[in-house]
Write a structure and sequence with these properties.
The structure holds two protein chains of two kinds. Chain A is mainly alpha-helical. Chain A contains 14 helices and two strands. In chain A, strands 1-2 form a two-stranded antiparallel ribbon. Chain A starts with a helix and ends with a helix. Classes of the chains: A mainly alpha, B alpha+beta. At the A-B interface, helix 10 and helix 11 of A face strand 6 and helix 2 of B.
């Protein structure tokens, strides 16, 4: 299995480029990773795809037909995409300025802020989701703060609502928005903004014509990360929403674990995969469009 | 100010970074259409001054006036002061033409006018057919020209250039120097050119302001700065010179008589007897041979010959802290290290300064 990529690339070289070296030695560096992915990811994925188009030993699209004809499926997909979109949007709005603050922070402060951003990732998502169930209770910290500030008269229902889900998920996924934007902001030459200013560009014009385009690759990467992670999250909605609100991953788990319905499970999985792949492909295309051509 | 009113007037500007003064009470007056160089070693505050004039940095004290208007509190984007940065700072996400058009678009100039101006300015820097390219596809010299074109496209009232040639290799730098000078002169634009390269400053500018430690030590024409340096710093920073420390032995009319380790030297000037002074002379004013009609003369021993192509410098043995150098004419008798020679120079060409 693990020799497959090497022999493949050797054959490709034979066909494509006779004058060049047969096997790029650099390609060997990708071998361990490619082998692992082939075994642990590509193979199960192929099985899953097959399960979605084979029923009783015969190839059929009946699974998809049934799935797409059911309005419940569309509600689930809408729920999934809407909550993921909302989480991504809030992460972007909160993370974009944070990435600038992080990039402009000096020395030790920056190291401390980076640690504060990355360390919570080592706390398991289950722990974090449980923590949020405590915070979001009607007598939890969030409600007490809201009441204390006079924002609401009585505790509002947050747990088992979409708002609570979004709040908890933003907390978990925010670093994946901040870090890619931060890495791009750090590389922007501050002289570019000086140059824009001396050319008569107002602060707002500078932001939209210089800063935003130059940070776009980071924004696209962050959006792709957060969206694909929120669209497929399972633990957070299970703990913060329970059964009231179905997302694709909750539906998939239920189909496989409780209903033993491989057809619905695999079909929903493929739909989820399609959404995620669409986001990744779109972001790759967008990044190429925004990348300065060299 | 003699010779016309100031177009740019920098008045008593000061700037500190934390506790360290970078510029201390600096004044600078530039006439309309003038090409002025700020010359000084790195860290002398010349780039800081440039950023203050551009509005990219706020001064802690003082005022900046341009063309009759007080700009002190005006933000950079409302000053109409163009800047060419050392790193060029071209926008990597825009094509060459869009870089040049940037300032015009920021001002909301009509599309047709933008296109015409971009074409005209690109032609001016001889890159008319490069508009559609990425800035990464350009060589260093071409990037430099685009940076100039971008700054000129908005017709700035003043153009500031921050070491724009220092990233280029030597040969290209010399070509670009002439090209830039001709371009800016033809446009009649008022320009301030920051450099640490004395050749650039002397060749290109109408006047040179020599800066040191946050002050302007001398502001005059290149010829005066070279032949009559106002301070020992200017003498040292601009060009080569013989520099001898000494004590004033006496005063004779308009001349002082100074005893140095190399011998007795007369120089036009005034100083109290017994004062510690520095006497100096430029190498091209030094002649090898016996003194004629009252010239200064020193007995010196040759240490090295430095061949520079068009000319040769003779360096002599001198006590620590002193320096003695003469320019050897192309057609003259050859000298070798160790030769004992008499170096003569006119009293009128001798400079004298209080000891630094």
């Amino acid at each position: 299995m693990s020799t497959a990529p090497a022999s493949l690339s050797a054959r490709a070289d034979l066909v494509l480029a006779p004058p060049r070296r047969r096997l790029q030695p650099v390609a060997l560096l990708a071998l361990p990773g490619a082998g692992y992915l082939a075994l642990a990811f590509a193979a199960p994925l192929a099985l899953l795809l097959m399960a979605s188009v084979i029923s009783e030993g015969r190839p059929t699209l009946a699974g998809y037909r049934t799935f797409l004809a059911d309005s419940f499926s569309w509600t689930v997909m809408a729920n999934t995409i809407r909550s993921a979109g909302l989480i991504t949007l809030i992460c972007l709005v909160a993370g974009y300025p944070a990435a600038f603050a992080l990039a402009r922070a000096a020395g030790l402060l920056q190291a401390a802020l980076l640690a504060a951003l990355v360390l919570p990732l080592s706390v398991g998502v289950v722990v974090k989701a449980f923590a949020w169930t405590i915070l979001l209770r009607s007598d939890g910290v969030v409600n007490r703060a809201l009441v204390g500030l006079g924002a609401v008269d009585a505790p509002v229902r947050l747990l088992f609502t979409e708002s609570g889900l979004v709040l908890g998920a933003v907390n978990v996924f925010l670093p994946f928005m901040v870090l890619p934007i931060f890495s791009v902001v750090k590389l922007i030459d501050p002289r570019l903004l000086d140059a824009a200013a001396t050319l008569g560009s107002s602060p707002l014009h500078r932001f939209f014509r210089v800063t935003l385009p130059l940070t776009m690759p980071g924004v696209i990467a962050g959006v792709a990360f957060v969206f694909s992670m929120s669209v497929s999250m399972y633990v957070i909605p299970t703990l913060l929403m329970g059964d009231r609100f179905k997302t694709l991953s909750v539906l998939i788990a239920r189909s496989f674990l409780f209903m033993r319905d491989r057809s619905v499970g695999s079909t929903a999985s493929v739909m989820l995969l399609l959404i995620a792949v669409a986001v990744v492909v779109a972001s790759a295309l967008l990044t190429r469009r925004w990348q300065p051509s060299r | 100010m003699p010779g016309g009113a100031a177009y740019l007037d920098v008045i008593d500007v000061a700037k500190w970074f934390r506790e360290t003064p970078v510029i201390e009470g600096l004044d600078l007056q530039v006439r309309a259409g003038e090409f002025v160089s700020l010359l000084g070693p790195s860290g002398c505050g010349k780039t800081t001054l440039l950023r203050i004039v551009a509005g990219l940095l706020a001064a802690d004290r003082g005022r900046v006036r341009l063309d009759g208007a007080d700009l002190t509190r005006v933000p950079a984007h409302k000053r109409n002061v163009g800047v060419v940065f050392q790193s060029y700072a071209l926008f990597p996400h825009l094509t060459v033409a869009d870089n040049v058009a940037f300032g015009l678009k920021a001002r909301g100039t009509p599309r047709a006018e933008i296109d015409a101006t971009v074409a005209r300015v690109l032609a001016l820097v001889r890159l008319a057919d490069h508009g559609a390219r990425s800035v990464f596809a350009l060589s260093g010299g071409q990037q430099q020209r685009i940076a100039v074109a971008r700054a000129l496209a908005v017709r700035p009232k003043l153009l500031l250039l921050d070491e724009p040639l220092s990233a280029l290799d030597r040969k290209l730098r010399e070509t670009m120097r002439m090209e830039l000078q001709h371009l800016l002169r033809d446009l009649g634009i008022t320009a301030i050119f920051v450099t640490h390269d004395q050749d650039e400053a002397l060749v290109m500018s109408d006047r040179v302001a020599v800066m040191n430690a946050g002050r302007i030590e001398q502001f005059d024409t290149p010829a005066t700065v070279y032949t009559r340096p106002a301070t020992p710093f200017v003498l040292d920073f601009v060009g080569m010179s013989t520099r001898l420390r000494g004590t004033v032995a006496g005063v004779d009319g308009n001349e002082v008589v100074v005893d140095t380790a190399a011998g007795r030297v007369r120089a036009p000037g005034r100083a109290a007897p017994g004062a510690a002074v520095l006497v100096a002379v430029r190498p091209e004013n030094v002649r090898l041979g016996a003194p004629r009609n009252g010239e200064n003369a020193l007995e010196l021993k040759v240490r090295d010959l430095v061949f520079l192509g068009s000319k040769t410098f003779l360096h002599f043995h001198a006590p620590d802290g002193d320096q003695a150098v003469a320019e050897l004419p192309a057609s003259g008798e050859r000298r070798a290290p160790g030769d004992q020679v008499t170096a003569s120079f006119d009293v009128g060409a001798t400079l004298v300064y209080p000891a630094p």
